[in-house]
Amino acid sequence: MVLQDEKMNRREAIERLLGGSVATLLIAGGLTACRQRKSSDALQANPVTQAALHIPCIACGDCMPCPYGVDIVGCFDVWNDAADNNELPDPKKAASPHYAALTRSFLADYHNRIPLLARAGHCINCHRCEPLCPQHIQIPVFLRQMEWVEQNAENRT
């Protein structure tokens, strides 16, 4: 029985549901394929989209726990949700009437989903997570990018 207050990442939930790491890899691969398909569908439907900014994280959790408390998977999930829905605030378009609304929406989602001490800005570039990532993602680079967008968005709203 799982308590409602108990938090687990996607991998833990899948392992608990299916009971095995082999099944986890198959399911995680399927989730990645679904997310990539969604992104490519979005690109075909709307050529001016931010789906290309998608971080190729499969939310396996192998990079966790971060020694400095960053919720890497959660941060990437917030970013990917915004990118997939074409809702990332683009500082180059700050004059656009939609920029302020996108910025508020992105920050509200990020701040509601990720606790203050688990946000991208707490990454110190120790790179301990990188060799653990099966996708070979340059995790600190993406966390710095996310931190920059957050800071720039907060400064402009």
Topology:
Elements: H1 10-18, H2 21-45, H3 72-84, H4 99-113, H5 139-156
Helix pairs in contact: 1-2, 3-4, 3-5, 4-5
3D structure, described in words:
- The chain has five helices and no strands.
- The longest helix has 25 residues.
Characteristic terms for this protein:
5 helices; mainly alpha; about 50% helix; about 160 residues
Task: Provide a compact summary of the structure.
This protein is mainly alpha-helical and 157 residues long. The chain has helices at residues 10-18, 21-45, 72-84, 99-113, 139-156. The protein has five helices and no strands.
Number of separate helices: 5
Helix/sheet category: mainly alpha
Order of helices and strands: HHHHH
Global outline: elongated
Would you count the extended β strands for me?
0
Fraction of residues in H or I helices: 40-55%
Poorly predicted tracts of residues: 1-5, 21-49
Q: Please tell me the total number of domains.
A: 1
Radius of gyration: 16 Å
End-to-end C-alpha gap: 44 Å
pLDDT averaged residue by residue: 75
What does the largest sheet look like? Answer: none
Q: Beta fraction of the residues?
A: under 5%
